[in-house]
Request: fold
Amino acid sequence: MLIELLHKFSAYPWVYDRIQTLAGNKRVLECLSQALVPLNPRVVVDIGGGTGTVRTLLADCRYICLDVEMPKLEGFRSKVAGGLAILGDATSMPIRDGYADMVICKSVTHHLTDSQLDRALDESRRILRPGGHMVLFDAVLNKQRWVGLALWKLDRGSYPRPIEVLQEKFGGRFEIARWEKMAVYHEYVFGIGVRR
Reply:
């Protein structure tokens, strides 16, 4: 019951952004910035975009923040005047085929069942133009990292996966251009794929 209340409370933009800061989001954004800026996308869809913190990394693009929680999208809109926010689900995106140059999936996969993850990756591939980039960044299950295991107990993401599972699912849909691990508290995977 207490964990459920904490999860509801964490949906509020100010709280959500502070939790992300404590979880090491600054280091994650630095890593993403170095990789994303040179790709120079014109249209970016950020699935599970929350309050749109990734937007600060991308200068001149049409940025679309898609999330399932309205409070987070309202937080995004308060930060980005005229920002395009869509209340929606990564498994069925209301975006036309081949529309995006880049799809970003940051800290989302551990919230999805296996079938939802498959649909979200298929949808991401569908909305990407040929040659477009799919960016995946998420915590992965590593039973050797006790801090990560403790954090999984608090996270409402119920489906942490080993890195090999994500790599197989990702590589089945995209040509992998980059695939690496990093650690803050959790162990993370950072992948960039190209739509064939």
